[in-house]
Design brief:
This protein is mainly α. 83% of the residues lie in helices and 0% in strands. It contains three helices and no strands.
Amino acid sequence: MPIKKSAMKALRQNKTRALRNLKVKRKVKELIKESTKLIEAKEKSAADKVKAAVKSIDKAVQNKVLKKNTGARRKSRLMKKLNKIGK
């Protein structure tokens, strides 16, 4: 445990930020899974779900929860799957 006041505050901040980041990562992962499932089932609503997933990935990258290249890679893989069933 930290002893100094500033270190205690830093620890509290780290905990709250970690929880917030975890929520965002879970949401992104959940949306990716749902959209992948819809793509595999060849549903028409897959495009909307992918759009929502891409939006959440972009927000996570913007807030520095995910790294830029990680976000780009995940979006690319999703779009690749979506385009494959579109043909």
